[in-house]
Each structure stands twice: as C-alpha cells, then as structure tokens.
Amino acid sequence: MADPFSIVAGVAGLSDVCFRLVSYVRSLKQDVNATSSQLAALTDEIETLRKLCQAVQGAIPTSTAVSLRSHSTPTTGDRRTANEKQLFLWSFVDGCVKECHSLVEQLHALLVQLCSGDTGSPTSPSGTLAKLKTALAKRSVDDDLNRIRRDLGIQHGTLNTLLTLISVQDGRLAHITNLESIANVANDVHFLRRRVESQRLLGGTASPQTPTSPGSRDALAALEHLDIWFNSMPAETPLRVANQYFDIPQAVSSYYVGREDLLHELRDAFIQPPGPLHKQRQRRFVVHGIGGSGKTQFCCKFAEENRDSFWGVFYIDGSSKAQLEQTFGRIGRLAGLDKSTANELSMNAALHWLSTEQRRWLLIIDNADDPSISLETYFPKGNRGHILITTRVPGHSIHNQNVELQPYNFSSRLLSPEEATNLLLRAARRPSPWDVAWRKIAHAITETLGYLSLAICLAGAAIRTNLCDLNNFDEFYDLSWQQVQYSSYAPDDPDHKFEVCAVRTWEMLYLKLETENTQRSRDATQLLNVFAFLHRENIPRELLERALANADLETAQAEKDNQQAELESQRQTTSYLDWLSSKQRSLLMFLFRARGPTPFPDAIRWGRMHGNSRKGVLRVKQALSELTQRSLIDYNEISKSYTMHPIVHKWARMRQRLSRQSLWADTAGMVLSASILLPPLGLEADDDTYHLSLLPHVKHVQACREAISEEMEAKRALTWKARLYFGETLYAERLVMFGKFSLVYMRSGGFNEAERLLTLVVDTLVRILGQHNSRTRRVSLALSDAYWMNSKPEEAAILQVRQLSLCQKHLGPGHPDTLRVMSKLGHTRWQQGKLSDALELQRQAVQGLKRTLGDKHQDTLTAMDQLGRTVIKFYRRADIEEAHQLHRTAMEGLKALHGPDHAGALDAQESLSRTALLLGVDYAVQAEQLMAEVLQRRQSRYGKTNPMTLLAMVNMAIAKCAIQQPRKAEALMREGLLVAESMYGVSHIATAWGRCILGLTLIQQQRYDEAEAILQEVSETQKSMAARRGDFHPDRLGTLAEMARCYYLHGKMAESIETCDEAIRGLQSISKPGVEHALSAQLKMARASMVLRLEHRSSGLSQAPALAPPVFPAINFCQGD
C-alpha cells in the first residue's frame, strides 16, 4: 500500500540523489578544467529528472485521507470513477519514482568506481579524468552506462507521460482541450510501449548478465496497462491523433524485402520520444549511396511502417532548386495558400507552417544529389520535426543531427545475398517455395547485378514479362549492354526500359560533368574512364600518387642508364659492321617510337612534368572528390582506396564506342605502368606490397585490352582493311608496360603470364636494340627468373649462359653485370642439381661483387644468400656452419638496407632457419622462432596463396617436426599443398618437395604405410621431371634417403638397403671424381649396420650381441639421439 506521504518521501529521496550526482559530475568537470560530451549529457539528463521530481511534488494531492492502492491489470470492460483513475495513475508514479531512484544510485556508484580505480582510493584530478576516459572506452563499461541511461530515459518518459495525464485529469492544462491532451498522451504511451518492446526484443535494455532489467519490465507493464485503458475508451473518443497528411515520393513496392534490422534501428533512434517541447530537438537523418540502391524505397517503407507516429508525412524533391520550391509549394497550399501564390512565397509559408507545428511531422527530402545546393535553407526552423534525406552525395552526411546513428551508406550496405535472391524471385513472380536450383540461379544473377535493388527489380520485371528467363538472363544482360553501347534511347523509351533504367541515373551525372566543362569536371570524367578499365574494387589512391611521383625517379634513372651505356660503348672496339648495325637499330627505334604523347589523363600528364607532382596530386584529389560526391565511386578511408559498383563499373566502360574503349583501356594500362618502378628502383618492402595489390587491376586491364582487340579484329576482318593490318605495334611505352606487368605477375606467383610477357619484350628488344644492350640484358635476366620460378632450369640456364658470354665479351669478367649474371647462373645450376658447378660460379661471383660493389651492397648480399644454399647441400659440418654464417650476414645486411619485411631479407632469414635445424637439436627452438616470424610476415604482406608464403609453410612444417610437433606440421602441409597443387600442378618441383615433407611428418607419427606411398609417388615424379640429371637430382636423392629411413622404421630392412644403394649411386654420379659426398658416407654406414643386423637375424643365433641402430643422414633437421 502506498500513500501520498510515501510518494513525497520517494520523490524527495530521488531529488536528493539526483542533486548529489549532478554535483559530483560537475565537480569532476571543474577539477580537471575540461569538458566531456558524455559528462555534459549525463548532467542534463539528471538535472531534467530532478526538475520532473519537483513537478511531481507539485501535483501530489494534499489530501492524506486517500490511500493509493496498487491495482491489477485493467480489462477492457472496467469502468472507474475519476478518483479510481487518479489512484491507478499514482500507483504507477510510485513505481517509476522507485525505479528511477535505484537507477540513479547505480549510475552514481558506477561513476565513483570508475574515477577511483580498482583500489577505490581517490586520485588526482587529471588522473581521475584519465581513468574515467579509459574506463568509458571499454566496451563492457560503455554497455553498462548506456543500459542505465537507456532505462532512465524510459522511466523518465513514462513518468512524464503519467504526470501529463494526471494534469489533464485534474483540469490543470486549461489552454488545450482534455480530448486533444488525452489523444496526445495516448500517442506517447503507444510510442513508449513500442520502444520498450523493441529494445527488449533486440536486447537493448539488457545487461550482459540478465536478459531484461526489472525497470524495463515494470515500465512495460505500466505502459501496457495504460494502452489497454486508452483502447477501452468509448468509440466516439479518438484514441490517437490520426495521421492527417501522408505524402511520400513513391509507393512501397509490393515485393519490398530486406533491411528490416535497419528499419527497427532507425525507428528506435530517430523518432522523438515524449517530453516537454522546450527539450525537443529537430532530428535529421541521411541515407546516401549510389543510384538504384534503394534509398527512396527504404525511407518510404519507414514512413509507411511508422505512419501512426506522425501527424503529417511530407516529401519534397531535392534534385534541383526549382523542384525544391515547386514541391514545397504543394505543402504550402496545405498551409492555406492558393495555387496562384509564387513558389518562393509558398515555400516560405510551408517552412513556417512546419516550424510552428507542435505535433510530430516527418519531412522526406528525396534525391538531394546536387552538392552545390545548400540544404540548410530548406530545413524548417526551430527544434521540431523529423527530416529524412536521401542523396548520392556523401558530403551531405554532415546534416545528420540529434540521432545516435551514423548515416546509412547504401553503397556499402547493399542487400544481403539472401535478401537480393528473395527480391529477384518475388519480382519475377516465381511461385514459392523456391527450390534450391532456382535460388542458386537467382543468387548468381543478383551477384552479377551487385545486389543493387533497382537493377534486381528490373531484372525481375524482364523475367516476369518473358523478355528472358532465369536460365538465360546472362545472355539478355550482355545484349542489353551492347544496346547501351550502340544506341541512344530517350528517357521514356518503353521498348528499352531495362537498358534505359540501368544507365539513366549515371548517364545524367556524367553528362552534367561534361557540360560543366571545368578543369575539375574534365579531370573527373577522364579518371572515371580510367577506373572503368581497372578492377572495380580496391583501386588504391596510391596508384595515382605513384604514377605522378615516379616520373622524376625514372627520369633520373634513365639519365644514369644512358651515361652507363655511353661509357660501355666507349670501352668497346667497334667494327664497321657493328657501326652499321647500330645505325640500323637507331632507325628501327625511330620507327617503333610512338607518334603521339603517352596516353595519360590530363591531370596525370600535367603532374608528371618536372616539379608538378605535388600539384598534380591535389588536382587528382579534386577530381576524385567530384566523382565521390556523385557516388560514381566510393572511398574507403581505412584502406585509402576507391570502389565502383559492378553496374556503374560496367556502364562506365560500355557507354563508349569500341575505338574509345581501346583508347581508355590503353590509358588505364599506362597509368598502372607509371605507378610501377622497375629495378634497380622500387626494391623496398612497401613496393612489394604495392605490387601485390595491383594484380587484379593488371589482370583486368589485360583482359579488357585483349577482348577489345579481338572484337576490333573481328570487325576488321569483314572489310578490305584487314589486308593492310599487320597486328598491334609494340611501341616503347607498351614494352615498358608489359615489363612492369610481368613484375607484378612474378611477385604474385603468375609465372606463366610473366614468362609470356617477358618473352614478347625480349624478342622485340633483341630485334631493335640487340642482345648486348643493357636494357636487353636486364629483361633477359628477368625472363630467366621467370623460367627458374616456372621449374624450367634448362631454359633459364641457356639464356643465362648466353648473357654471361655477352657480358664477358663486351663488359669484361669483373663488371658488376657480368658478376650478377654469373651468380644467377650458379643459382640455376643449383636448381639443376649441378652443385659443384654452382659452387664454383657462386664463389667467384661473391668475391667479385665484394670487390666491385662492397660487402653491404644488395646484390652482394643476395649472392651470398644464394651461395649459402649451395654450400649446405654438401652436408659436411663445416659446410653447414659456413652456410649459417653466409645466411646470417645476408639477413642482417638486407634488414639494415630495407627493413625486416623486405623479400630478400625474409629469404635470407628462411635459409638461416633451415641451416640452424641442421646444426643440432639445440638450435631447433631458435630455428622455429625464426621461421614463425618469416611465415607471419609473408602471410600478412603477401597473403596465404603467394608462392613465397607456401614455401614458408613447408619450412615451418620442417621446424615443427624438429621440435616434435608433427601433427601441426602435417596440418600446415596439407593446407599448403591444396593451394600449390591447384596453382602449379603435382609435377612442379616445389609441389613434389612439399609432398616429400608431408611424408616426413607422417614418418614422425609412425604412419609408415601412408608415408611410404607418398614418398614412392614423389620419387617417381622427381625421376620423370624434365631437366634433371638422369634419375638423380638432389631433391630425389633427399627423398630416397627419407624413404630408406621410413623402410627401416617400418621393419623393412631389405627395402631400406635397396633404397640406400640407389641413393648412394646417385650421390656418386653428382660428385666430382675421387670426392665422396658426405651423405653417401652416412648412407653407407647406415646400410652396413642394417646388413649386419640381417646377418645376425639369418644366422639363427639365440643370443645376438646388442647392435646400435643405423644412423641415417639428417636431410632436413637433426633427429637427436
């Protein structure tokens, strides 16, 4: 039982704790002489609650004779006297006051705890604020604080609504009628009830421990009682203020689907809760994104679902100033103006009418796509109303106000795959339930359409009207784009509705850019044309910045190359034939020179002029801003890259005639090429990462250029001009472009494509410049690297031998280029298994590079690392220690030059780890740590499918075996082999070696049958590989040694002895005459031990002497005792 005195006491206690909390928060702000948005918001909320307490005290009846009783839930048929209704309302007031008191106490305790820290002792003012900020940054603390504030808001709204209703019952609001007041309060009760229910369903009021807080349950019960009460009133009494005006941009589609979570989220955060008018704030929310993403439909759906929450729903067309004034005029006529009133006067009247209206209204400003229009001019003045804005201009997001949500970006928050699939099938009117086959086809179509709402609806309409069906939609889609390319339709052309709707939005924006005819607009259209031929995702802003900055670097390097070439020509003795040959090449160079400037966008060409790169960057940014503001491209602030929607991307490409496509495809390729630096430039770790990011763009440009060439060739074949066409001319710029693209393919593991492009470049350069030209040499060596990585050591060796001979003849044996070629040839001999030849070449190259370039030069360090890989293959203790030192020196030197992420530094660290595993079991843990770092860095920079990452996974598996973790090693190997086999095939040298290591992990787990099967298969694969030394390549010899150990552990000593014999023969064949390989000696000892065991077994002696087990050579790591 509650009486007025208990309510008075409760309200007084609540007012007191509010006063103490406000004083505490204000002292925090004064002590640290700082302001905090969260502290200020807390202060305002608690101060408002305290003032409400004073209002409650003034409304409490003075009579103490009447006791306030709690009542059970009213039913529809209840009839109460006015006194009973008062008692009913005051019983809920009592509960709200108690719950508010509890929540404010919790809030006070939470703040005190946060400011005092874990110890509970006070700290200095600055320390207090620091602790508070740190605590508020924690998600758990932030959740608790938001929960308490949210529950307080609900209780505050309920209490305010109850007090208003009590005042109406008492007749204290004389300035308005009771009927209207009751109707308004009914609206507030209904709104609060919906808000509490939705938050409870979404877990909004729940703490991490409890599903729903008691205060929310009590508030919901009170609101349910009040809602039932209002609905039980006589029929002639209006329960709500009816929605009087409802005007939206378009009807909600009958097959609208998706974004239900956003609709609920926006409703809870956007619609103004009940409260005093002076505390109201005009709420604005922005929905932006590309055309056709569903912005308008979303806002119309929101208005339709929440129609009862607004007295009026209005919309204006924001596409232009004229449309704004005209559609505002329609609202002005609702305010009482006649049709003859000028639009401007009508608009002002409408703005004034809305700004003075106390009832809730919603204004939708649709298609506010002109960034030059100041939208603030069209917002009704004052603190009332709700405004939704749809726009393609991300910059309009600044108009978001008084809503605790970030603006919705429908360019990135498109329909989910499931929502898009459902929308297409509904729009196509396919009867449900939909089977798996239909859903699969529909999903593929929506993916092609980029999950864009408008495009999906149009596709559904095309299917519904039998223009196509689900199975042949792709054919219809491609045909539609061809019609777009070769035709020009009127906006209202009914015969080509799909084509027109698919492109009209963006075509209008593009034409507007063209008609502006400013430098910025021209730059924007040109960059859009370039982006159309790049991959649509993750176009790095760095691409354009590098294309500008690289010009000066390449010019300086070209001057050095020309000076070097001049010095080389002066040293060489030339005959008359050589002189004549040089003149012929000069003529060829003139003929192969492009007749016009390199195809670049104007901003890039101007910025690449000497000294203009920084100004060029600004000009490019301004052009990109134009495209972003029109939602033709999207910018990702985190990745600093641009993205285009699939349909926008295709439209920007297909809108052009074929000849223009050819031009802009070439231009996109040239911009890409300009952003890439060829060695000796561009050797830093960041350059490697950047090159990897370009692979999708290089592939897309190449695919576009080839498709356009094929189409042009097909068209040309139909005319007599085909006889005069001799194929594409490879100008110098195109050769450079192909060379740079091959670098990207090499970094990314696309060795076949790199080989194809480099072969084309080398053949052309040999014809024009000759084999001994420095440019030809560099590209030829790059081609030999592609052969090497493509498991073609014979082709690589032939090319390198030829280059070494030319360098020795024209440059001399001590020239750095001669020594570089010698080192590469030695590395190829290592891959071929010709270890003695490799060792001789590499030692000579390292010594020469040290003399000419010094110990710290990158080429010297790289040659030392490659020498170490050859030295270790001789497996003597001194060889292993020498290799260990070589790798350590290379690793430390390359890290000092380029940092720990440099590709060469990681290669050297990987080799260092492998040699440490062969030094002894004491080095195993250190080796595993070194290898773990290599694997982590390669995965983070190159991704899991890069060939160098796959190599690191194999070596990491070896290290895991060395520290007795074979199961983890097996998991690594199986994961890596899935990728390697799909990318390079089972017969590639690296794949075969990886399977050998997989067998090694199985041996360590005593799964001998599986290991034998794998090792036998690998041995046969390695035996049948091309370019091997008969049957005995070092890789196969290592496999045979591991197989012999597996046979022995499996109890098959006869097979082990036979395998040892084969391995020993192979080792003898690759060693110099009279020199026994270390592995051969160890295998002979193991063989002898097994033979002795077999003899004792066959002799039948009952007590055979104890024999030591055979010791097999450590091929990959030391096994220990």
UniProtKB/TrEMBL annotation:
<dbReference type="InterPro" id="IPR002182">
    <property type="entry name" value="NB-ARC"/>
</dbReference>
<feature type="coiled-coil region">
    <location>
        <begin position="25"/>
        <end position="59"/>
    </location>
</feature>
<feature type="domain" description="NB-ARC">
    <location>
        <begin position="285"/>
        <end position="425"/>
    </location>
</feature>
<dbReference type="Pfam" id="PF13374">
    <property type="entry name" value="TPR_10"/>
</dbReference>
<keyword id="KW-0175">Coiled coil</keyword>
<protein>
    <recommendedName>
        <fullName>NB-ARC domain-containing protein</fullName>
    </recommendedName>
</protein>
<dbReference type="GO" id="GO:0043531">
    <property type="term" value="F:ADP binding"/>
</dbReference>
<feature type="coiled-coil region">
    <location>
        <begin position="541"/>
        <end position="573"/>
    </location>
</feature>
<dbReference type="InterPro" id="IPR053137">
    <property type="entry name" value="NLR-like"/>
</dbReference>
<dbReference type="InterPro" id="IPR011990">
    <property type="entry name" value="TPR-like_helical_dom_sf"/>
</dbReference>
<dbReference type="InterPro" id="IPR027417">
    <property type="entry name" value="P-loop_NTPase"/>
</dbReference>
<dbReference type="Pfam" id="PF00931">
    <property type="entry name" value="NB-ARC"/>
</dbReference>
<dbReference type="Pfam" id="PF13424">
    <property type="entry name" value="TPR_12"/>
</dbReference>
